[in-house]
Amino acid sequence: MPRLTPRQQRTRTQRLAAHAGWIGAAILMASLLYWLYRASLGQPRTWPISTGLGVGAALVLFFLAGMGAAILAGLRSPEGRRSARSAVLIAAVLGILVVANVLAYRRHWQWDVTGNRRLTLAPLTVRLLNNLKQKITVTAFYTQSPQRQSEARESRQVRDLLEQYADRSPRFTYHVVDYLREPDRFVSARVATPPPVILFANESGGREEVKGATEKDFTAALLKLTRSVKRKVVFTVGHGELNPSSFDQSGISVARQVLTEQQHDVSTVDLMGRDRKVPAGCSVLVIAGPQVDFRPEEIKAVKTYLDGGGRALVLLRPGGPSLSGLLKDWGLRVGDNVVAQIVDFGGVTGITERVRISDFESHEIDRGLSAVLLPIARTVESIEPPPAGITVTPLLRTNADTVARPVTRGQERIDLRPKPGDAHGPFTVAALAEKQGDKAGKVVAIGSAEFAMDVLAADPTTSNLDLFTNAVNWLADEHELVDIPPRDDRPDQVTLTPEQRVRAFYVNLLLFPVACLFMATYVWWKRR
User: Fold this and answer.
1) In b/e form, how buried is each residue of 203-217, taking b as 16+ CB within 10 angstroms?
2) Radius of gyration of the chain (CA)
3) What's the rounded Cα separation, in Å, for the pair 159 and 111?
4) pTM over 0.90
5) DSSP of 242-258, one letter per residue?
6) Which of 284, 377, 503, 526 has a C-alpha 20 to 30 A away from that of 520?
């Protein structure tokens, strides 16, 4: 900037005004920055800020009054006009930097380039965070002591994971507290679990203490704090079904564990017991591959439950009962067959009873699935025309390279070699039947039970577990838990958390002198 009035020509008032201008600008800037900092923390303006703003503004006004004529005269000169253009350019660059930084915080996204996508939250976690209706506060009690290096490393991992959660929702906030340096905060939190521990709390007073440090542990705590009603999932027993409490080859304990983590109440029922009816409050009745027929009394109990608006997931083994006395009323016909898939074994054509499905129907139960492996399956077709008020929707269909071989009840050995009269695919092996009306019951029938066994449910290369849990959650009207990829993980408008606002404040504070230095260098270079 040019010297608008030579020092030797200034009056005493102008000299005082020049000093007042610098002092007032400094006081005004400091007060504004402190006010912005307190506002980022959600704290009100205090009297020192008001006093600083008032004194700074008064000194700047005194400067303008004392030096106003000299400033106007200087701006009319060619050098003054060039300086004014430089000042406007500096202000424009600063404004662009600040706006770009604010937009970066308000519309945040990231790319995960890790091989196993360990920095990407699961779809269920993202949906829970995007749909949070109440504030969740997390306090992680970890120490940074050099004597506990493993805990310090885990603390950094926990902080990074919690940061991802906080980036997804403004209602999720977290703090990491060193319990050795701040023991009073650990004591005041009234945590029953010894540290290191992570405390999840909601605004309603709910608390969950988490000892693990993985996304699975954190999301399970979120589910417990955000879900007020537990759905009752009841498995039938007494017919050779898959056992939800068994860990052997006939077990379905992996699926049960996931349902429990999703805050479902999982239990069993013997329909030939004392009550001979489906328990009251049952959300989903699961018939997981019976090997002997249901008795008429049991069929009647299930029918009564479904006619009252109940929901059922029925898994059927090839060669086992077809439960036609129950499913025909729902427009479903289970074939007495086994579906075999024709495959190419290195140039040699073969046939296998293992059916792999990777193309899915456009239904919520199928969304998010990559590939389902059915070790052995039978057809589940719709009856044409279906009963009045019943709608049947296919869920899983095989490809054209499949054949259906007949199987009699109890047959142990199956000849998979195609015969001239065999039907060729595609075949429907899973279907949904819905009843219209006030008591809208629903039945999902899958022509395989073995796909849900623990050995395949725990296989990460298949979506067998997701198919089972998706069907249960959809029937229970828990659509948020169905593995539906969100249409947009990035919300259109996000309110910054206090931590994010403080971070943005410091970034903008750092950008200001950097931008000023850049523009000063530019002006100096232009004037050389």
Assistant:
1) eeeeebebeebebeb
2) 34
3) 18
4) no
5) PBTT--STTB-HHHHHH
6) 503
